[in-house]
């Protein structure tokens, strides 16, 4: 009488996920491939492919190729940066006081272009500017725009509403949280495909728990807009839940290890220019979310352009600033906000969830 009785030693489950309907995923060694450390010339930060560091990376993400993808000439003679700048110049709210600006708009625009999702679920809409960039990047993708508020915060006036019939607005009185959508029903009806869905998190909820919940829905790609550093954040949840915090904070090592082991790839999008380019005299914002000329830059990735070191990059930066009617010195507060607003926006490619465990 013998039936291959076996012993399984499981990965530890983070305590904050215990007793919830979220199932841990299996880790496969074949997803460990990749460089252990990434260094850049004339830049103080290094990216490590292991938890416990201020700057973590894993696998291959298109965010790592941002300069090439945006600035190399395409077969038709155009550059993606030119398309993006035209879109950015015509954004519905030029200031977007409580929303994304140049760096994060570039990241979101590129993510939609490269992933080519059939559906983007945007959790946190506010004034609708991020919806605008998603639609500009893809005229064919479905969009679920989700926000409990009827109107934007920060006195941003009227929310931009995508006129496309491919966008469904779960906002205000029609609000349905992303985890409460009828995922199982929509999948069974083939209305959505989680494998080709991108979730964009900009809701200032507990990001780690949101990521874990999205894993359980079978989604493979997440972009986290507010990826705050240690001891930074606009809300209590912002200060204790971002991937960057989970990967570096000793108090969250179990959570960081669990998340890292369930990823195919993780990368933070590079800012377009280094903070040293700002001549603003304003103090650094304590809550974070903005670069400052005094930053040591030991925990952010190498910028796309180095106008501080390269004459060609300086010419490119000045050309971009002029196109957007921005003073390249960034002395003015509004100009400073456009280029220095940066919160380590990141892309996570998740390991696939077993179909047996979905929606449990």
Distance between termini? 34 Å
Q: Helix count?
A: 10
User: Tell me about the biggest sheet?
Assistant: 7 strands, mixed
User: Proportion of β residues?
Assistant: 5-15%
Gross morphology: globular
Written account of the structure:
Strands 5-4-3-6-7-9-8 form a 7-stranded mixed β-sheet, sandwiched between helices. A two-stranded antiparallel sheet has the order 1-2. The radius of gyration is 20 Å and the shape is globular. β3, α4 (129-137) and β4 (142-147) form a beta-alpha-beta unit. By secondary structure, it is α/β, with parallel strands linked by helices. 44% of the residues are buried. The protein has helices at residues 66-71, 80-89, 102-115, 129-137, 183-188, 207-215, 243-248, 253-261, 311-323, 333-340, and strands spanning 37-39, 46-48, 119-123, 142-147, 167-171, 197-201, 221-224, 263-268, 346-350.
Topology:
Layout: E1 37-39, E2 46-48, H1 66-71, H2 80-89, H3 102-115, E3 119-123, H4 129-137, E4 142-147, E5 167-171, H5 183-188, E6 197-201, H6 207-215, E7 221-224, H7 243-248, H8 253-261, E8 263-268, H9 311-323, H10 333-340, E9 346-350
Helix pairs in contact: 3-4
